[in-house]
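Incident log entry.

Two folding requests arrived from the same account within the same minute. Monitoring flagged them as a possible duplicate submission, but the sequences differ. Recording both here for audit purposes.

Request one:
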Amino acid sequence: MTALQCPMVETGQNSGVSQYRPAKNAFDTAELLGMQLAEAREKAGRHGCEIVVAREDDKSQPVPIEVDPTRIYVYIAQGAVSHIEGVGGGL
């Protein structure tokens, strides 16, 4: 399985679809698993990324729908990151 990295940068288009690759300062978002939300936000922020909580304690949350290669969508359980849903919102 490929690591989900953030941030991503656009490299061009293929058949009208934007293509992305990890930026030079990208990190493996799996490093956020188990961290408290505030700590995870701080770590992501050091790489220019933003955390969006998609689910908290088994309840879905409203999330932005536009593609943003600096967003990390996560699930939170009891205040800690329990799952990385994705990066970029549709990348």
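Request two (distinct sequence, not a duplicate):
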Amino acid sequence: MASTIVPTAVAAQGAAPPTLDCELGFQGLQTQARALANAQFSQYGGFDLVTQAAPDTWRVEIFFTTRWHPAYPAVAMRTLRKQVTGVWTAESKACGYGDQAQFAGLVEDMKASDKQLTDASRAEVERRKQSQSPLAPTP
């Protein structure tokens, strides 16, 4: 069975974050995203943005390019997962249905941003560890 944006309350309750199935196409992914339980809808940097989360476990951000974007139509999904170490790791997947050179640029930007987010979370966890007393219980 191909993975898809899962429009169920189970996903919102922490079972597993939704995923992308590029075979659904741009419109199909938009339809699936609108059906996500407890999803929030907004605009960010000219993208239509859909977010869904299971607090302290995972967060998903789905970016739909708008007509102004050179990579339009394209969909990118960033999944942030909290690791046992307390570090949030970011990983993106994208589907491009237009200009593939522009889409490659979008993917490159998402991957660079994933690394920055993961590195910032790792640094924050390290700062917290260093500020704790060595005798304090670990969270």
